[in-house]
Amino acid sequence: MSAPSRKIIHVDMDAFYASVEQRDDASLRGRPVVVAWRGNRSVVCAASYEARVFGVRSAMPAVRAERLCPQAVFVPPDFVRYKAVSRQVRAIFARHTDLIEPLSLDEAYLDVTHATALPSATATAQAIRAAIREETQLTASAGVAPNKFIAKIASDFRKPDGLFVVRPQQVEDFLAPLAVGRLPGVGRVMEGKLAGLGIGSVGDLRVLPVEQLEARFGRWGRRLHELAFGIDERPVVSERPTLQISAEDTFASDLLLDELAPHIERLAEKAWASYQREQVETPGRLARTVVLKLKTSDFQILTRSLTPAERPGSLEAFVSIACGLRERVGLPSRTRYRLVGVGLGGFIDPHAFDPQAELFGEDGSR
Predict the structure, then answer these.
(1) Boundaries of every domain in the chain
(2) Fewer C-beta neighbours within 10 Å, C or N terminus of the chain?
């Protein structure tokens, strides 16, 4: 079982937002830095390695981070500055390949299969990391492998400021001892199901016949089998179209569902303005789906979406559908919410749009 051989680099900036802050403010160097607004409503955007020693992680409530590390220095995020540095880093990538797939401001896949400036993918990764250090005074870690998912795992092996290479002949030995949870798409729930089958490592997963995995997990079972053997044929996609345009906000105090309408309308206006700009920059793409996102006071996240027979063609229609999605939440009326978001997705080419074919509910069924 083999996949077409590629040379993929996954580059991941080290503690990016926090490192930018430490670079630009010498008084922060060597100290535990948490990039977040203080307060009960805030979450951690990033943590320096000094803060991570205390268990602070991104997406953690800021109040918990403060409890774990009382001596932490809290710095409000400055995304304008982070985006500027990200553009610098991507310009460095572009010197080596046109096939760049950004995943976020601080990481990207690069396909250097046909790059000829340097003799190998390893040499290219070394050159990229050196240029990042010299030109931005920041560090990046990189993984080099025959495909995307292995490169991403590899980039984490020598963090921070490291490089790890997995050559094609090393793939199966590299993967075998890893916990099955390291495979993409295997979260805690799936990890628990696999543990129930006696599977704890990727090597364990290889022992099960693909037929047994398919019988238990459907098509995902076959995908698990492929990943266990290091197969990932996904190409690096340099121009990925927008999947969703959205806006969200965290409230100063938790609100009931019936109190969300004015906030939904306000956020829908922001998302609609972004959608109109998207249509100017990428004409001919229409959004069909409206999405409502909610986060409860106890941090439960839920989304509801609808693809109506007639696509949302105005702000008013967008607001109406988004507000109507509250009826599908299904939680007790006393439930309070700390965050609401609204979005537009399901983009299509208008020439492919057939209203009669778009009679879908939130789960995609007819």
Answers:
(1) 8-15+80-171, 16-79, 178-228, 244-357
(2) C
Q: How far apart are CA 104 and CA 158, in angstroms?
A: 20
CATH code, residues 8-15+80-171: 3.30.70.270
Paired sense of beta strands 8-13 and 107-111, if any: antiparallel
pLDDT digits (tens, 9 = 90+) for 41-63: 788 999 999 999 999 998 888 99
- Rounded to 5°, the CA angle 177-230-90 comes to 105
Strand arrangement, sheet containing 107-111: 100-104, 107-111, 8-13, 140-145, 163-165
For residue 358, pLDDT over 50 is answered with no
Q: Indicate the fold that domain 16-79 takes in CATH.
A: MutS, DNA mismatch repair protein, domain I (3.40.1170)
Q: Are 72 and 66 in contact (CB under 8 A)?
A: yes
Q: Which of 107, 134, 172, 327 is catalytic?
A: 107
Residue 308 has pLDDT above 80, yes or no: yes
Tokens of 231: 């197969």
**pLDDT tens-digit profile of 247-271?**
998 888 899 999 999 999 999 999 9
Burial of 360 (0-12, 13-18, 19+ CB in 10 A): middle
Omega within 30 of 0 (cis) for the link into 102: no
**pLDDT band, residue 280 (cuts 50/70/90):** low
Q: Is 214 a catalytic residue?
A: no
What CATH number should be reported for the domain whose range is 244-357? Answer: 3.30.1490.100
Q: Phi and psi of 247, rounded to 5°?
A: -145, 145
| Cα gap 188→363, rounded to integer Å | 23
Closest CA to 102 of 83, 76, 129: 83
